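Reopening this ticket.

The earlier resolution said the output was attached, but the attachment link was broken on my side. Pasting everything inline this time so it's all in one place.
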Amino acid sequence: MGSIIDSFMRQNNGQITVDDVKKLGLNPNLLIDLANRGQLERVDRGVYIDPAMFEDDLYILQYRFKRGIFFKDTALFLHHLIDRTPDHYQLNFPSRYHAPAIKQYPVKAYYQKPEWYSLGIEEVLTPGQHQVRVYNIERTLCDILRTRDASDSETIRQAMVRYVQLKQKDIGRLIQYADLFHVRAKINSYMEVLL
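Inline output:
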C-alpha cells in the first residue's frame, strides 16, 4: 500500500474514505485498486478498511449520511449512559431531508424543524475511535422522554442514574432543554429522586 495511505490509516484506526484520499491529493481510484488486490476491504460506498480491522458501523453511517446526527438511544450508547449496543441506530435529520438509501441500513430516521435539529450537536468518539456527531447528553435525556416514540423505561432509568453520577453534567442546560421540549415535569421527577 502507498506510504501516504498507510500513514493516514494508522492515524485513523484502519479506516479511509474517498473524501480522505481526495484531501490527501491522491486519485480515489487508488482505493479500488488496493481493494482489488486485497490490501483494503470495501465496507460501503466510499468507505474502506484494513482487512484486519473490524468496520465501524457508526462512522460508516455518519459518512454516508452526513446530515444525520446520532439520536436517542444511539446517543445514550455513544455517551456511555447505557450498556447495550442498540439493535438499530437512530439518526435525526433536518425536516424535508430525503435519503432513500437509508432504508438499506438498520437505521430509524427522524426529522425535525431546523432550530431543533441543530440544537446541542457535539462530536464524540465511537467504540472504533472515530469522531461522529451526536446530541449532547442533556439534549439526549430530553429526547428519550418525549411521549411520541419515547425510549423504554429501563433505558431511561439507567441513563438518568448514570447522568446524576457524572462529574461533567449541566443541570441548568438540562432544565433549559426540558422546558423547550416540554418534558420538564418528567425530568424533575427523575432528578428529585436521584439527586
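Reporter confirms the inline version is readable. The chain has two domains: 3-55, 58-194. Residues 153-165 form the longest helix (13 residues).
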